[in-house]
Amino acid sequence: MLVSRLRLALARRPWLHWLIATACGAVLWWQVAAAQAGLHRATAAWGSTRAVWVATESAPAGGPLTLAERRYPTAMVPADAVQAAPTTPVAARAVVAGAVLVPADLAGLRTVPAGWAVFALPGADAPELRPGDPAGLYADGQQLCEGRATEHGTDNGTDRVEVAVPATCAPLLSDRLANGRVVASRISE
Questions:
Q1: What is the pLDDT of residue 108?
Q2: How far apart are CA 157 and CA 164, in angstroms?
Q3: Structural domain boundaries in the chain
Q4: Which of 52, 75, 98, 124 is most buried per CB count within 10 Å?
């Protein structure tokens, strides 16, 4: 009964329908504006923000890092957070997704990740490996492991390449290297 009376009143007076619709819209607008104002107050309470680099995916030690620049409240950012984009982002230790990067998280071009071993390989037959390049190490037609080049140079007129590898690969690589059967390759990223 009440619904039918309301429908009849709205049918006879269309302005009443539009008045109710406008009132509902105004209430909705007021709620959205209040929520935005609360968000701005919360943001202002944290103070100024600072641009930092954050890992977007987890990476193991020695693995490549995928990074994104984000702005965080200064109160939440470590004092030594990385502010400039790293040229060759390689993890010096395991990094989880969402972590704000600090210098200890980044392996320098010649920095070896924690727990890794560095081997000097004959460089005459190796491709040109720059520090930080991923390298594959092979012997007897099989891949032994993957590592990272740390240096390419010459010692006493002999070309050599230094490659850092995970500790789990070191015993196998040292055995094959002693027999002179290791070949290095550059892995494209």
A1: 66
A2: 22
A3: 2-46, 49-105, 117-186
A4: 52
pTM: 0.46
CB 79 within 8 A of CB 103: no
Give whole-number Cα distances, 120 to 32, 34, 158, 183, in Å: 64, 65, 11, 12
Which ranges of 13-158 would DSSP assign to H, the alpha helix? 14-46
Contacts of 123 (CB under 8 A, 6+ apart): 152, 153, 154, 158, 159, 160, 161
CB proximity list for 24: less than 8 A, separation 6 or greater: none
Render 76-96 in DSSP notation, one character per residue. GS-TT---S--SS-BBSS-B-
Residue 41, amino acid: R
pLDDT digits (tens, 9 = 90+) for 69-125: 998 888 888 888 888 888 778 887 788 999 999 887 887 655 677 778 888 877 656
Would you place residue 31 in the very low, low, confident or very high pLDDT band (cuts 50, 70, 90)? very high
Which CATH code fits 49-105?
A: 3.90.1210
